[in-house]
Write a structure and sequence with these properties.
The chain has helices spanning 4-8, 35-40, 47-55, 74-88, 106-109, 153-166, 185-193, 210-225, 258-266, 278-286, 290-293, 298-318; strands spanning 59-66, 94-98, 118-120, 123-125, 127-130, 133-137, 172-178, 201-206, 230-235, 240-241, 248-249, 270-273. With 319 residues, the chain is of the alpha/beta class. The chain has an eight-stranded mixed sheet, sandwiched between helices. It has a two-stranded antiparallel ribbon with strand order 3-4. The chain has a two-stranded antiparallel ribbon with strand order 10-11.
């Protein structure tokens, strides 16, 4: 659906936006696949924006985790960031919201695959994987992990609105929102509903090779067009350390300088690099706590450095 976010991004250039009385009727709407939806839909600001604002008033930092390219480990990085933030300070309350509607990974990665969501008078209760770490995902609402979610944009939009406005998070220090790759329905919906809720910004995940960086540049452009602050870029799978001989190898060569050089060119913060560690993959498949079990591993040390920089940036935004 054409939203106010799309209008801000000038896609299409002359879209009147859903709040306009001309929505679906203007000449610019001719040929748009959503013309009928916009013409018949309610006019004016989406009431969900205010509902989300009220629900998330007790959440200090609201962070979108983005990636331009699929397969860069965004969901894994989201889970690792959540675990590291929670482990670093037991008084810090952290939550992960999985808004990758068609490919929810967080229930498995965080070890909550067979959990169920309960509803009370105050809303849906998230699933707790630790005393100060919780998660919500559409994966908890499916009868089987193998069930496909085959939804068009408006239904995804409604689900994201429910997650943002009906989950009883309580007091949170960090809400990390795991999104699908790209710049499509889920991203537009989240940025629209969070537009009045004090969105802290976005962390973008990439791998070192140019084929991933090409799409990350598009993601950065998307953030700038819809006024999302870029908190920084994480380069995942930057180097492979052989568990047997400890030899270092570049599985994904940084032929154009990698994420760090790209960040310098595009003037966005570089949060750091994470190595490619097969143990992380095994732990995520099994839903185990890599951060807690292997605190002295090179990957966890690198992760903790990234989290320290992220916390500093978020704290500076509040000053």
């Amino acid at each position: 659906m054409a939203t106010t976010v799309e209008k801000a991004a000038s896609v299409p250039e002359h879209c009147p936006g859903t709040e306009s009385a001309d929505a679906g009727k203007a000449s610019a709407c001719a040929g748009c696949p959503n013309q009928q939806i916009c013409a018949s839909g309610p006019k004016g600001p989406d009431p969900g924006i205010q509902l989300v604002k009220e629900r998330l008033e007790q959440v200090r930092n609201k962070i979108l985790i983005l990636s331009g390219k699929g397969g860069v480990g965004k969901s894994t990085v989201t889970a690792l960031l959540g675990r590291s933030l929670a482990a670093a300070d037991k008084e810090r309350n952290v939550a992960v919201l999985d808004i990758d509607i068609c490919g929810p990974s967080q229930p498995r990665v965080l070890g909550a695959l067979n959990e169920q969501v309960h509803q009370s008078g105050s809303g849906w209760s998230p699933v707790y994987v630790d005393d100060n770490l919780s998660v919500m995902s559409i994966g908890f609402l499916l009868s089987s992990p193998d069930d496909a979610v085959i939804w068009r944009g408006p239904k995804k939009n409604g689900m994201i609105r429910q997650f943002l406005s009906e989950v009883d998070w309580g007091n949170l220090d960090y809400l990390l929102m795991d999104t699908p790759p790209g710049t499509s329905d889920e991203h537009l919906s989240a940025s629209t509903y969070l537009s009045q809720a004090g969105l802290t910004g976005a962390v973008i995940v990439t791998t070192p090779q140019e084929v991933a960086l090409l799409d990350v540049r598009k993601e950065i452009d998307f953030c700038r067009k819809v006024n999302i602050k870029i908190l920084g870029v994480v380069e995942n799978m930057s180097i492979f350390v052989c568990p047997c001989c400890k030899r270092l190898s570049e599985i994904f060569p940084a032929t154009t300088g990698g994420a760090k050089k790209m960040c310098e060119e595009m003037k966005v913060p570089f949060l750091g690099s994470l190595p490619l560690d097969p143990v992380i993959a095994r732990y995520c498949d099994e839903g185990r706590d890599f951060v807690g079990d292997l605190p002295n591993s090179p990957a966890v040390e690198a992760l903790n450095g990234i989290v320290t920089r992220l916390v500093e940036i978020c704290d500076s935004n509040e000053e």
